[in-house]
Amino acid sequence: MIRPIGERVLIKIAEMEKKTVSGIILAGNDIKENSNIGEIIAMGSIENSYAIKIGDKILYKKNVGTEIEENNIKYLVLEIEDILAVIE
């Protein structure tokens, strides 16, 4: 398992719809570029310091973080300031 350090979180990138409402099928890179929702999987040394917790669904800034793939699952390591909101 990947464990972030410092003020970082590990998120699982949410699966995006591969087809738009108008029926256009998106390629793999387009899906990633249009995705900015994920689930917090692990936290660095910030647990209990912010109003987020493991399991929260979050909205984060586009084009940030470091993407990692493990067991065919895409994760993103984000700085805490890249998180915009918790989705309830």
UniProtKB/TrEMBL annotation:
Tell me where on the tree of life, at the top rank, the source sits: Bacteria
> Which SUPFAM superfamilies has this protein been placed in?
GroES-like (SSF50129)
Q: Which InterPro entries does this one have?
A: Chaperonin_GroES, Chaperonin_GroES_sf, Chaprnonin_Cpn10_CS, GroES-like_sf
Task: Give UniProt keywords alphabetically.
Answer: Chaperone, Cytoplasm
Task performed by this protein? Together with the chaperonin GroEL, plays an essential role in assisting protein folding. The GroEL-GroES system forms a nano-cage that allows encapsulation of the non-native substrate proteins and provides a physical environment optimized to promote and accelerate protein folding. GroES binds to the apical surface of the GroEL ring, thereby capping the opening of the GroEL channel.
The similarity annotation says: Belongs to the GroES chaperonin family.
Subunit text = Heptamer of 7 subunits arranged in a ring. Interacts with the chaperonin GroEL.
Q: What is this protein called?
A: Co-chaperonin GroES
Q: Which organism is it from?
A: Cetobacterium ceti
| Name of the encoding gene | groES
